[in-house]
Amino acid sequence: MAERMQLRGRTAVVTGAGSGIGQAIAMVLAHRGCHLALVDVNAASLAGTVAQLPAACRVSQHVVDVASREMVAALPAAVSTVHDRVDLVVNNAWCWGRWHLRHGIRRRFRLALRYQLPRRRAHDARVHAVAARQ
């Protein structure tokens, strides 16, 4: 049987964290000891998610529209101002199109893990895409 991924003390970025599947993923990760960088287009929804997290969870909130190239490009740098590493990226926010497939959150964080985020080796991190649609 495969061993469960150890999450205590690790940092995860979760897009679409303001509601639904993204919020549920954030809750599970927080209860398993993860620190979180939560991303959503709706600031009020993000605040609602954060209010439900355990006090021990270090969390940052990032209001980002994943359909915006500029906002997506700036996200890794914003996350790195609060978290010194990223171990897991859950790309749950829904956005579709050629640009998003080529240059979206998943690719941006792969590049950031390799070149931008300090003290982190790219091969240690995991990037997951969740196919969620509203």
Describe this structure in words.
By secondary structure, this protein is an alpha/beta fold. It has a single domain, classed as NAD(P)-binding Rossmann-like Domain (Rossmann fold, 3-Layer(aba) Sandwich), CATH 3.40.50. The termini are far apart. β1, α1 and β2 form a beta-alpha-beta unit. It has a 5-stranded parallel beta sheet with strand order 3-2-1-4-5, with helices on both faces. The protein is built from 5 helices and 5 strands.
Give short descriptive properties of this protein.
37% helix, alpha/beta, Rossmann fold, globular, 5 strands, 134 residues, 5 helices
Short description:
Helix content is 37%, strand content 18%. The chain has 134 residues and is of the alpha/beta class. It has a five-stranded parallel β-sheet, sandwiched between helices.
In round numbers, the mean pLDDT is: 77
CATH topology: Rossmann fold
Number of strands: 5
The helix tally amounts to 5
Strand order of the largest sheet: 3-2-1-4-5
What is the helix/strand order? Answer: EHEHEHEHHE
Task: Please give the domain count.
Answer: 1
Tell me what the CATH architecture is: 3-Layer(aba) Sandwich
**Sequence stretches where pLDDT stays below 50 over 5 or more residues:** 115-123
What value does the Rg take, in angstroms?
14 Å
Distance between the termini: 34 Å
Q: Report the sheet with the most strands, covering strand number, pairing sense and barrel closure.
A: 5 strands, parallel
SSE blueprint and pairings:
Blueprint: E1 11-15, H1 20-31, E2 35-40, H2 43-51, E3 59-63, H3 69-80, E4 88-91, H4 98-103, H5 105-115, E5 126-129
